[in-house]
Give the backbone structure.
Amino acid sequence: MARFDKNVTMTRSRLDADLLAAAYERDARRMLVFFARRLYDAQLAVDVVAETYARAFELRRRFRGDPTDAEAVARWVFGIGRNVLRETLRTGAAERRALRRIGIVAPALDAEELARIEDLAELRELRSAIAAALAELSAQQREAVRLGVVDELDYPMVARRLGISEQAARARVSRGLRVLAAAVDGLPGSEVLP
């Protein structure tokens, strides 16, 4: 059994601003591509990356791993990023509260920068693959996906609009989404981050 001397204080290293800045330099580009491929919007992806690092900065004292372990920091920040992405998708706009609290203004991108991010994330290819997959769907499935995903209607409303049962509406949306997911799964950049 290990014994500890009460007079010896153990100092635990923390994730400080410099280590978080180094993580940003190392990981922000791949995070930007990850978000751009999921949001199909380069400016919104930049906003989500900024919000992610703003929250990571605010929460840095909660980090429990080794702050010198780059992969541990990346996993932690990407976990925060996934939460920001979910909120963004749920609310339809990037949350900017944390940015305002610490005085960061997300950069507004010019047309050239937006095009560069879209090229980096291969959004043209992704849009093309999704358009082709949508064309393969039956008209009923395509409409169900549009109502359930694009218009964000709940299943009872989708069912009413299509004149079918709620179970049939769920099935149509689900099958349509599986076809779309299969179309993008093989594309470069579709892999999951840490």
